[in-house]
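Long-time lurker. I teach an intro course on protein structure, and each term I like to show students one example going from raw sequence to a predicted 3D structure in token notation. This year I'd like something fresh instead of my usual example. Would anyone be willing to generate the tokens for the chain below so I can use it in lecture? Attribution to the forum is fine with me.
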Amino acid sequence: MKFGIIGAGMIANFHAKAIAAMDGGELHSFYGRRQEAVDELVAENGGIGYTDLDAFLADPELDIVTIATPSGAHLEPALAAAKAGKHVVCEKPLEVTPERIDQMIAACDEAGVTLSGIFNRRFHPAMDVFKKAVDDGRFGQLTLCDATVKWYRDQAYYDSGAWRGTWALDGGGALMNQSIHLIDQLIYLAGDVAAVSASMACLAHEGIEVEDTAVAILEFKNGARGIIQGSTACYSSTGHPGEVNLCGDQGSVFLSDEKFRVWDFAEAKPEDEDIQANLMTTSEGGGLGANDPSAINFLGHQLNFEDVVKSITEGRPPRVGGTEARRAVALICAIYESAKNGGKRVDL
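-- Reply from a regular --
Happy to contribute to a lecture. Here you go:
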């Protein structure tokens, strides 16, 4: 299937690299508003360049559109792509409010096209075995379930684009832009949240509307409690790994980026030996994207894109469909609501 990319920045180029490496798809075209930026992408990656969205979407060879615009500018191109009969794959967050995501879901359903979000951190071997352990009931009763993102972005990061750090186009700060990956993993593994109470602040950056530090207390529908910590104001020379930790009365697993720091269950299983041999980490630093947003590999995106193609050809929903991608945004928006109201409990 042939892919076209909407957007002309770093993420668009990242999508192009992932598409070039994938099975079942090929890069076909780019759309951007600035001719110079589009020309640079085409020169580096090949394909056809457009600065007219209607012409881009009218191309009969185009099958799938990936959206790599600022977060709060995902809705309009998604609606246009769906109307043109193109499948839609959209960078995280799918949009900045559940209501805007609902419009995207409805438009794609009406047009009979696939809508998928991008949560590349779901697509690696450690996540697969982590999810299997949850589904197999190895934790017993889940008790404490946490996501921790202690990352760093310097002031230049926020100054690099007028949209960065705004509610309208960034949708939020350390939670919506950075921590959303780990928040998605947390609820994918531990289940939906029933209620939150939160606090947030901007402590280390200037000229932005949003938080660079936030903490939320969670009550899960299954009875577990948990915490989300998210920040872009935690300096480290190497970067702190993002962590998702699940504990139950029969086991504990701490995932540090794409390896386990802890894999410990009351009842051993045959697969544990292989996990202990191949999926454990000994490093405390060098977190993926923790200090530099470009310092990640594109394998997760590649596998995410490959899953979308397979879902279309097999006639099944993608692993991160629109409704699934909505879950993390709904939780983050509830956290923001609580924090803006002095930590008041918000039921989901």
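Some talking points for your students: The longest helix spans residues 322-340. The first strand starts at residue 2 and ends at 6.
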